[in-house]
Write a structure and sequence with these properties.
- By secondary structure, the chain is of the alpha+beta class.
- It is 18% helix and 32% strand.
- It has 8 helices and 16 strands.
- Bound molecules: zinc ion.
- The site of zinc ion has 5 residues, from loops.
Length: 277
């Protein structure tokens, strides 16, 4: 069993999960020809599709308890393979009310699902003692009528009400979230996509977000998916990040890679790949 905790100096990251989400290859990677996946089978699930863990990273830093991303949200039926985040909190002896900061890497539906609860049409924060953080650019993008339906379908229920509830905080690039955590703009997947750089006691770590969805994209850096809003910028950002992570040997927490999603970008015999921690 891989360890579900990663320590960066004084910062502790625990990998919680809201469950999994699976797609056919041609659905999620419509522009990648089937034959291009030959020899890449190790990156696929047993049925030849792609499967994504819905990690929610619980970070303890500088006296704060932070949850990064909140999954897809409550189950729609007993068979729904997600909706498990609050159960996973219990498994780890944590309560939603222990969290004082909720940080969204971006405003896509699988990262904001548990932000709010609704009773009689009234919204309330699921994390009752938390301030919520989303990038200013994604806040703007998820209100853009041209993008809402296709790109941010649950933002009206899961993000918009944060403002009236008085718990909304907008993030810019390079902003300190705690004394040990700084935002790092990684645009492309969404306009305001943010990674989080952790620096403590001379050690660095990165919460990557959706710069990467599948380990095949480390070698095939130009493979974009239908979820990447700006394919050109997605490729630029991914190349920059993979180069830096390899060069600096920085441990990564990657939301959608296999649980717990902790690993490094390494190179052997000229090939770059994911090495799980
Ligand atoms: Zn995602």
């Amino acid at each position: 069993m891989p360890n579900d905790k990663l320590t960066i100096g004084n910062v502790e990251i625990t990998s919680l999960s809201d469950g999994v989400l699976a797609f056919d290859l041609c659905n999620f990677f419509p522009d990648i020809a089937k034959e291009d996946w030959k020899g890449q089978e190790d990156h696929l699930s047993a049925d030849g599709g792609v499967s994504f863990n819905l990690a929610c990273y619980l970070i303890k830093s500088d006296g704060h308890t932070i949850v990064v991303d909140t999954g897809l949200g409550p189950k729609q039926s007993a068979e729904t393979p997600w909706g498990e985040l609050l159960d996973d909190f219990k498994t780890h002896g944590m309560r939603a009310e222990d969290v004082d900061m909720v940080v969204m890497t971006h405003a896509h539906r699988d990262h904001i699902g548990w932000n709010l609860t609704t009773t009689d049409g009234k919204y309330a924060p699921t994390f009752t003692n938390a301030q919520y953080y989303v990038s200013a650019r994604d806040w703007e993008a998820c209100h853009d009528p041209a993008l809402i339906q296709d790109r941010f379908p649950n933002a009206p229920e899961c993000v918009w009400p944060l403002e009236d509830l008085g718990v909304l905080n907008l993030m810019e690039d390079g902003q300190q979230i705690t004394s040990e955590i700084t935002t790092l703009a990684t645009p492309g997947h969404t306009p305001g996509h943010m990674s989080l750089m952790i620096s403590s006691q001379g050690e660095n770590g990165l919460v990557l977000g959706d710069v990467l969805h599948n380990t095949a994209q480390i070698e095939n850096i130009d493979w974009v998916s239908r979820a990447d809003i700006d394919p050109v910028q997605t490729r630029i950002t991914r190349r920059e990040m993979m180069d830096r992570l390899e060069r600096e040997g920085i441990p990564v927490a990657a939301v959608h890679l296999a649980k717990p999603g902790f690993g490094k970008i390494v190179r052997e015999n000229g090939r770059r790949f994911w090495q799980g921690l």
